[in-house]
Design goal:
Structural class: alpha/beta
Largest sheet: 6 strands, mixed
Order of helices and strands: EEEHEEHEHHHEHEHEEHH
Helix content: 25-40%
Number of helices: 9
Distance between the termini: 21 Å
Strand content: 15-25%
Shape: globular
């Protein structure tokens, strides 16, 4: 891809808690319209990396740039940066006292000062796309886990982010609810959304990724296109990791 398409630059970042190093010299470029999947064992730093990108964690060294602008040291204006980087968490984080629609329009109205009629129209269109139009006036407690997660995705999309981050968004879901969330993400990939995804859904990762980044011990151990990574990983550590999972010869998830 041409350099002009580069949207996110991560340069030699280090993250530690006291003497415990979580991320060590991580460098990674993300391009517009690309889907990058972060894989690796629990505790390897995948979720921490997403939180550093979104400014939820500070870094000790290195820098993070979004569309050519350094964002890793903008502590006073990080709320503006987060409007450009949408993040969907495992725990949904919907406000329980607000309806689905109220959760979705809060950010665009309060943070971006957009016109209410236009925001509500967009929210309804997005809810319809993810099959939640009939839940617009429901409260989070009235939704299934899959519905909550789809509402959380719509909330992030309604802010018009340049990059979407997904942190194990299916980990807390019952198996039958996983597919409805993954289908929404697959649709976003078809539409050219720029996404960085942390997941343990291996077949989904293989189907959706343009590039796989394998982390272990806070470092990038391997970087590859998905077919090569899942069929012939280059490192012994990646082979050991993949041996924990079973795969069909051809993934059943299609985009």
């Amino acid at each position: 891809m041409e350099a002009i398409d580069k949207i996110l630059e991560i340069k030699h970042i280090k993250k530690s808690y006291d003497d415990v190093v979580i991320l060590e010299d991580i460098s990674l470029d993300i391009y517009k319209g690309e889907v990058v999947v972060l894989l690796g064992p629990s505790g390897c730093g995948k979720s921490t990396l997403l939180r550093c990108i979104n400014g939820l964690e500070n870094i000790q060294e290195g820098e993070i740039n979004l569309s050519g602008e350094r964002i890793s040291d903008q502590t006073k204006s990080m709320h503006l940066v987060r409007q450009k980087i949408g993040m969907v968490f495992q725990s949904y984080d919907l406000f329980p006292h607000m309806t689905v629609l109220e959760n979705i329009i809060l950010g665009p109205l309060k943070a971006q000062k957009r016109e209410k009629k236009a925001v509500m129209k967009e929210a309804d269109e997005l809810l319809n796309r993810v099959g939640l139009q009939d839940k617009r006036d429901a409260y989070p407690r009235q939704l299934s886990g899959g519905q909550k997660q789809r509402a959380a995705i719509v909330r992030a999309l309604c802010m018009h982010p340049e990059v979407m981050l997904f942190d194990e968004v299916t980990a807390a879901l019952d198996p039958e609810m996983v597919r409805e969330v993954l289908d929404v993400m697959l649709e976003l990939a078809r539409e050219g959304s720029t996404m960085v995804i942390v997941t343990h859904e291996m077949q989904f990762a293989r189907a959706i990724a343009d590039r796989v980044i394998f982390l272990d011990g806070g470092q990038i151990v391997e970087e590859s296109e998905p077919t090569a990574f899942f069929t012939s990983p280059k490192t012994e550590r990646a082979k050991q990791f993949l041996n924990l999972f079973e795969f069909d010869a051809v993934t059943t998830v299609q985009i």
